[in-house]
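Q: Hi! First time doing this. I have a protein sequence and I read that you can turn it into a structure. Is that right? Here it is:
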Amino acid sequence: MTIDIRTLGRVDYATTVQAMQDFTAARTQETTDTLWLCEHAPLYTQGIAGKSDHVLNPGTIPVVATNRGGQVTYHGPGQVVAYPLIDLQRTGYFVKEYVYRVEEAVIRTLAHFGVTGHRVGGAPGIYVRLDDPHSHAMLPQRPQKHVNVEASPPDFDGLGKIAALGIKVSRHSTYHGVALNVAMDLEPYGRINPCGYAGLKTVDLSTIGVHTTWEEAAQVLGLQLSIRLAP
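A: Yes, that's right. Below is the predicted 3D structure, encoded as structure tokens:
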């Protein structure tokens, strides 16, 4: 089955989450999988595992509790937020594989812009080398199947986070999703411990020298997600 891609533009966060929940609650075996691409006005979202002490100094930016996995993150203009609404039972893969495929779509999107995205063991999301975002050299901290990543904390040395992942699965169906930083005001990230990690640097494409539009980044990410999330 194909994925119905909808570009929503700037939308209210709470309204969008409610719409995702309504869509998921109402969907049947015949419902077409859908991908929403959007951006939000500035806000912090706190996942179900979130600890309030990771929100250091929100100032006037609202902090919204939400039911996705993970800790606190920031949304704002210049960030492409992708919400895949996928029936996992129909696709035939499980949540871990779903996360891998979403991350892979981000990695392929970055590759389109000449940037190498990396996974870090024990820390969902995608990272880039700060000293050389184009380097293909493997990271020593990449996930390795035979290593127990739970035992040691993630190693973010020399890295910046460019995409954050937070998902929810209900009735075998996914909502929430992934946020790719394109051309943002990154200052609000300094007021939180991003994803629960003190001092974790956050970057966007413009910071590492890639100048593109929100529309182009959304189009590339949307295409990659539709390819990677196919059954």
